[in-house]
Amino acid sequence: MADVYCSDCKKNTEVVFDHSAGDTVCSECGLVLEAHSIDETSEWRTFANESGDNDPVRVGGPANPLLTDGGLSTVISKPNGASGDFLSSSLGRWQNRGSNPDRSLILAFKTIATMSDRLGLVATIKDRANEIYKKVEDQKSIRGRNQDAILAACLYIACRQEDKPRTVKEICSVANGATKKEIGRAKEYIVKLLEVEMGQSMEMGTIHAGDFLRRFCSHLGMTNQAVKAAQEAVQKSEELDIRRSPISVAAAVIYMITQLSDDKKLLRDISLATGVAEGTIRNSYKDLYPYASRLIPNWYAKEEDLRNLCSP
Fold first, then answer.
1. Which of 155, 181, 248, 295 would be a feasible disulfide site paired with 244, CB 3.0-4.6 Å?
2. What is the DSSP track for 270-298?
3. What's the pTM value of the predicted model, to 2 decimals?
4. Rounded-to-integer distance, Cα 285 and Cα 275, Å
């Protein structure tokens, strides 16, 4: 209900919306104030068989401009009351044999969507990865290459371009068996291929240690105070000439911060959470240790605490 001015009652009265007729009716006098209005809210009417699929949506998916037919082609559905594998029936076999030029693209997009969901990525990253793969597939030069590595590399590039980078190890964990080395090679191949097509260098976005820090801290279950101190330390580290990868710097900062807290984290646990080897974390920590007094916020650790900080 809502208050609307009624011309018959000469005052603001509560109105009732009749969804079946699309009418807005005054609750006082019954006057129809607005007729046949359009309901723009989501529709969840279902036409599915009660004993089968109970999907409440009676509309199809959105158009996909990356597909030849926009993703709006006709598909033979399972008959009502049908049991068993529909594709084993005659109609199912004809549907399966039908020529669909976008079949490989649809399968690739489904794989990218699955990887994106497992990583908790937003839809814009998934759509960007689909666009990158479509450009690569149009070049007709990926035949014989590792398809899983190509798809994972497209997702990695999309994360970089959308300023939500993920480590290669994180991408590898959802890449259906593709190794870090294979994904790295696929990424370099895609970048070179698209740079030739565009005639200019491909923008990948700059990664910073802060892009990974909060996610790593969450995996380790660190307190809010420790996370805040680590974020400040990472920001200050960018002013230093530390020739380490942002991921290694983030891992080393986390190790330094946790050593100053009561909830100390083992190097092994930090390595598992960040995907950085223990030896690499040690070496990065050695580079950061001389600047500890500049990196660690004063409110988090006192001077005497820093002096007691374990040396590398």
1. 248
2. HHHHH---HHHHHHHHHHHGGGHHHHS-T
3. 0.70
4. 16
The amino acid sitting at 228 is K
Three-class DSSP category at 19:
coil
One pLDDT digit (tens) per residue for the chain, 312 residues: 567 778 778 778 788 877 777 788 888 887 887 777 776 666 655 555 555 555 555 566 666 767 665 655 666 666 555 555 544 556 666 665 555 667 788 889 999 999 999 999 999 999 999 999 998 888 877 777 889 999 999 999 999 999 899 999 899 999 888 899 999 999 999 999 888 877 777 788 788 888 899 999 999 999 999 999 999 999 999 888 888 999 999 999 999 999 888 888 899 999 999 989 999 999 999 999 888 888 898 888 777 777 777 766
Matching residue, tokens 């790295």: 184
Residue 14: closest CA among 31, 26, 30, 32 = 26
Contact 250, 209 (CB under 8 A): yes
Strand 2-6 to 11-18 pairing: antiparallel
Contacts of 302 (CB under 8 A, 6+ apart): none
Rg (Cα) of the chain, in Å, rounded?
28
Comparing CA positions, the residue from 291, 224, 300, 294 lying closest to residue 257 is: 300
The angle formed by the CA atoms of residues 233, 238 and 239, to the nearest 5 degrees, is: 100
